[in-house]
Design brief:
The complex is a heterodimer of chains A (about 150) and B (about 675). With about 150 residues, chain A is α+β, with helices and mostly antiparallel strands. Chain A has helices at about 20-25, 85-90, 100-115, 120-125, 135-150, and strands spanning about 1-5, 10-15, 45-50, 55, 70. Chain A has 2 domains: about 1-75, Ubiquitin-like (UB roll) (Roll); about 85-150, DNA polymerase, domain 1 (Orthogonal Bundle), CATH 1.10.150.120. A 5-stranded mixed sheet of chain A has the order 2-1-5-3-4, covered by helices on one side. The longest helix of chain A has 16 residues, at about 135-150. The radius of gyration of chain A is 15 Å and the shape is globular. Chain B is α+β, with helices and mostly antiparallel strands. Chain B has 3 domains: about 5-160, Aldehyde Oxidoreductase, domain 4, CATH 3.30.365.10; about 165-235 and about 285-375, Aldehyde oxidase/xanthine dehydrogenase, molybdopterin binding domain (Aldehyde Oxidoreductase, domain 4), CATH 3.30.365.10; about 250-280 and about 375-405 and about 445-675, 2-Layer Sandwich (Aldehyde Oxidoreductase, domain 4), CATH 3.30.365. Chain B has helices at about 30-40, 70-95, 120-125, 155-160, 215-230, 245-250, 310-320, 340-355, 365-375, 480-495, 500-505, 510-525, 575-595, 645-660, 670-675, and strands at about 5, 10, 15-20, 50, 105, 110-115, 115-120, 175-180, 190, 200-205, 205-210, 230, 250-260, 270-275, 290-295, 300-305, 325-330, 360-365, 380-390, 395-405, 455-465, 535-540, 545-555, 560-570, 625-630. In chain B, the strands form 6 sheets. Chain B has a 7-stranded mixed sheet, sandwiched between helices. In chain B, a hairpin with a 5-residue loop joins β15 and β16. In chain B, α1 (about 30-40) packs parallel to α2, α10 packs parallel to α14 (about 645-660) and α13 crosses α14 (about 645-660). Classes of the chains: A alpha+beta (about 150), B alpha+beta (about 675). At the A-B interface, α1, α2, α3, α4 and α5 of A face α4, α5 and α13 of B. Chain B: Pfam families: MoCoBD_1 (PF02738), MoCoBD_2 (PF20256). Chain B: This is Xanthine dehydrogenase family protein molybdopterin-binding subunit. Chain B: GO terms for molecular function: oxidoreductase activity.
Chain lengths: ~150, ~675
């Protein structure tokens, strides 16, 4: 049994402690918003916040999350609300297939939590570990800058 | 219970209008655009229209969602079906109210005549004439949604992280499957040690898979299976440094695109050779599918395939089933840029589910499978030569392109064309890819015919008919390479003549829409400044017009700062949707042009992950400016494949304009620039 907090709720995970956190979230916890992209921590699709830091859940064993705070895309904002980054992504229509977006929004939320006034360069740097294949990069950057305005307000 | 008014349209008691267009959402927003068309033709509120994913058990067979044809081909029949439904419901309202149908109007889903109103839900119940025989309504419905930037209907779920992708599918009792692919294309299973009892192995010839109760369990089982398998491997692949020779060695099918009579005129001859490597789809999500065999012998399959009906036929053939016993349903996957592993993994799921005791099996490929086993876009090479007059204008043009074919989709060429088929005990081999016919816009020769008014042109394709490397459709097929080659060469001709590349093109170009698009892109980009490069094409010769201007920074590495594109797609259904497709196409083409190349040694594909197959990152992505050139009275054509070729040429021409180095072999990497200087 591994105790951890997921999206603000204390949980007890029964999976083997060596199981990738991604599989625990998507499998036994039913939180499928976090994506499998490569399993090699090279694309960012599976990013979650671990104590506020974006980490690749595909290579993070459950045991590493013991006693810690995990936030997934489903928990970026309380209840049915949207995080300003999620709202801005919709406003800018910054998506095509949308598969990379969970990880991108997790990276962006982490950035805005530590720097509510990032410039474009800081946004690009914060997202550079996330891959997108459809080519919505510039829309995403615009959306995150817009969300920063909302967060700062 | 819904009232089924036509094959495409049914209406529920709650007023929800279910529309099944036969096209599938690939991340391009097509279902949103088709919903706009449907809502307008129905006179309905967009919120009451629900787009249903394509499936073989219900709904029309609209073939593939491919080739930038969905709006062009599926739009008109959908519009007509919806207009018939509207007319039938209006006729029912008129009968009920004792007025003539012409006195009934409909707006936002409400039928009205004077003070009398009725909804689609009220009227649909009473419509009993075959709607197919009702003349389509004309005139009265207004264009409320078509032409506006309606937000994507699927994006809210994806942004909130709600289950929507096939990867999130969870069927009752579902098992998870993994396939152990051979280590290289020519490998065959030599020996399999007896698996321990707790390892649920599925084997058929060299096809090996395992089942597990969870994703993690399936991954662990795959690791154990890997240690039990021994393979016979052979060197079957060409030398990746000699692709030009490999593509020219044959055997070939010769494809006459433009045949010129007589001898070419005299004059100065200028010639050049261009190439591109094999390219991977490299979607962010690996391919995925689910399958369930039922006790009555029927098979259900969930897939992100581009063509559920073709996949059904291919699966039925490999599995020895009647097509009527196979149901294939579309579920959204990650971005699809052509014939990727979606169809292949559906067969994997069916093969594993055949051995699962009736439990459904959900299969997801690994990143390595995705980058090494999905079909590639073919490497290509082209020789271009021109005879020019004293002013440097073209008197005669000759173009020869060498390529593997660009279509090996399920059932093409009479074969199932599914990866695992080739590994079975009784194999279904997949042959070399073919090409679409001229009326479908060619494959290797797509956009090989120049749009310019050359007095004489000889254009020939040469398709390799035997190859160990699997190739199929990748966004824009041969057009990316052919436009890159033609438009690079036009620049070389302009520079050789000492003429401005834009003016040089315009001097050879009479098509007014083409001229307008070129000028619009050039004006928006501030043409005339040093260092800019331009590229232009009309996709397939009859699709969207697109011109691109690139602004770059180059020393040894090339960085694209800004791309300015002008595009004419005829009537625009969703302006932001078109912009998004052009922006995305331009960014993906930048990635292809600067970074991408499938790597291999003589035995195996070696670009297996994001380090060995890098794609464009946020820090490398250019600003993209899109100018829509509106022609609302001309039919809509697709936008998804218009930008690729023009962008590649614009970048290469900008490199030549900025640092006076002409790179003719993609990708334009540091090594390629050094090579071109040397």
């Amino acid at each position: 049994m591994t105790r951890l907090t997921v999206n603000g709720t204390p949980m007890e995970a029964v999976s083997d402690p060596g199981t990738p956190l991604l599989d625990v979230l998507r499998g036994e916890m039913g939180l499928t918003g976090t994506r499998f992209g490569c399993g090699l921590e090279a694309c960012g699709a599976c990013f979650v916040l671990l104590d506020g830091q974006p980490v690749a859940s595909c290579t993070t064993p459950l045991s590493v999350a013991e006693g810690r705070d995990v936030v997934t895309i489903e928990g970026l904002a309380p209840g049915d609300e949207l995080h300003p980054v999620q709202q801005a992504i919709l406003d800018e229509q910054a998506g095509q297939c949308g598969f990379c977006l969970s990880g991108i929004m997790v990276s962006a939320a982490a950035l805005l939590a530590r720097d509510p006034h990032p410039d474009e360069e800081a946004v690009v740097a914060a997202l550079d570990r996330n891959l997108c294949r459809c080519g919505v990069h510039r829309r995403v950057v615009r959306a995150v800058l817009k969300a920063a305005g909302e967060v700062a307000r | 219970m819904n009232e089924q008014l036509t094959e495409r349209v049914s209406i529920g008691p709650d007023g929800v209008i279910c529309v099944i267009a036969g096209k599938v959402e690939l991340g391009q927003g097509v279902l949103t655009a088709l919903a706009q068309i449907a809502a307008d033709a129905l006179g309905a509120d967009l919120a009451q229209v629900r787009m249903v994913a394509a499936r073989t058990d219900g709904g029309p067979d609209e073939g593939l969602t491919a080739g930038s044809l969905s709006i062009q081909r599926a739009g008109p029949p959908l519009r007509e079906a919806c207009a018939r439904v509207r007319a039938a419901c209006a006729a029912e309202a008129a009968r009920r109210w004792g007025v003539s149908p012409g006195e009934v109007t409909v707006r936002r889903g409400e039928f009205r005549s004077g003070d009398l109103t009725a909804t689609y839900a009220d009227l649909a119940k009473a419509v009993d004439v075959p709607v197919e025989e009702t003349p389509a309504a004309t005139g009265t419905a207004q264009s409320v949604y078509v032409g506006t930037s309606v937000p994507r209907l699927d994006l809210p779920d994806k942004v909130a992280g709600r289950p929507r992708f096939i990867h999130d599918l969870h069927l009752p009792g579902q098992l998870y499957g993994r396939v152990l692919r051979p280590p290289s294309p020519g490998a065959r299973l030599a020996r399999l040690s007896p698996p321990p009892e707790d390892l649920r192995v599925v084997r058929d010839g060299s096809f090996l898979g395992v089942l597990g109760e969870s994703e993690a369990a399936a991954d662990r089982a795959l690791g154990r299976l890997r240690r039990l398998a021994e393979w016979d491997e052979h060197d079957t692949l060409p030398d990746e440094r000699e692709l030009r020779t490999f593509l020219r060695a044959g055997p070939h099918e010769t494809i006459p695109v433009c045949v010129a009579d007589g001898e070419p005129p005299g004059g100065e001859v200028i010639e050049a050779t261009y190439s591109r490597p094999f390219l991977a789809h490299a979607s962010i999500a690996p391919s995925c599918a689910a399958a369930r065999w039922n006790a009555d012998g029927t098979l259900e399959v969930w897939t992100h395939s581009q063509g559920v009906f073709l996949l059904r036929r291919a699966l039925a053939e490999v599995l020895g089933l009647d097509v009527e016993h196979v149901a294939v349903r579309h579920v959204e996957g990650a971005g699809c840029y052509g014939h990727n592993g979606a169809d292949d993994v559906a067969l994997d799921a069916a093969l594993l589910a055949r051995e699962s005791g009736g439990r459904p099996v959900h299969v997801r490929w690994s990143r390595e499978d995705e980058l090494t086993w999905a079909p590639f876009g073919s490497a290509m090479s082209a020789d271009v030569s021109a005879v020019v007059d004293e002013a440097g204008s073209v008197r005669s043009w000759r173009y020869d392109v060498w390529s593997q074919g660009h279509i090996s989709r399920p059932t093409y060429g009479g074969r199932p064309g599914l990866l695992a088929g080739a590994h079975l005990e009784r194999p279904w081999t997949y042959g070399a890819a073919g090409d679409p016919p001229p009326q479908a816009g060619w494959g290797s020769a797509r956009n090989a015919e120049p749009i310019y008014d050359f007095p004489r042109a000889q254009v020939t394709g040469h398709r390799l008919t035997e190859t160990p490397i699997r190739s199929s459709a990748l966004r824009s097929l041969g057009a990316f390479m052919n436009v890159f080659a033609i438009e690079s060469f036009m620049d070389e001709l302009a520079l050789a003549a000492g003429r401005d590349p834009l003016e040089y093109r315009l001097d050879h170009l009479s098509d007014p829409r083409a001229r307008e698009v070129l000028r619009r892109a050039a004006d928006a980009a501030g043409w005339g400044r040093p260092g800019l490069g331009i590229g232009f094409a009309r996709y397939k010769g009859y699709g969207a017009y697109c011109a691109a201007v690139a602004e770059i920074e180059a020393d040894y590495d090339v960085r694209v700062r800004r791309l300015t594109l002008a595009v004419d797609v005829g009537q625009v259904v969703n302006p932001d949707g078109v912009r998004n497709q052009i922006e995305g196409g331009a960014v993906q083409a930048t990635s292809w042009t600067l970074k991408e190349r499938v790597r291999f040694d003589r035995r195996a594909i070696t670009s297996r992950d994001w380090e060995s197959y890098p794609i464009l990152r946020f820090s490398e992505t250019p600003e993209v400016v899109v100018e829509l050139v509106e022609h609302p009275d001309t039919p809509s054509v697709g936008s998804g494949e218009a930008a690729q070729g023009p962008v590649a040429a614009a970048i290469a021409n900008a490199v030549a304009a900025s640092i006076e180095v002409r790179v003719r072999d993609l990708p334009i990497t540091r090594d390629a620039i050094i090579g071109a200087i040397g």
